[in-house]
Amino acid sequence: MNTDYSEWEEYVERNLRGADLSFKEALHLFNLPLPVIGRIADEIRRSRCGELVTFVIDRNISYTNRCVSRCKFCAFYAKSKRESYVLSKEDILRKVEETVELGGTQILIQGGLNPEIGIEWFEDLFSAIKREFPGVQLHCLSPPEIYFIAKNERMSIRETLERLREAGLDSLPGGGAEILSDRVRTAISPDKVSADGWIKVMETAHGLGMKTTATMMFGHIEQSEDIVEHLFRIRDLQKKTRGFTAFIPWTFQPKNTELHAIIKEPVPVTRYLQVLAISRIILHPVRNIQASWLTQDFEVGKLALFFGANDFGGTILEENVVTAAGKEYKPAKVDEIVKAVKSVGRPVAQRSTGYEIL
Question: Where do the structural domains in the chain lie, given as residue ranges?
Answer without folding.
Answer: 5-350
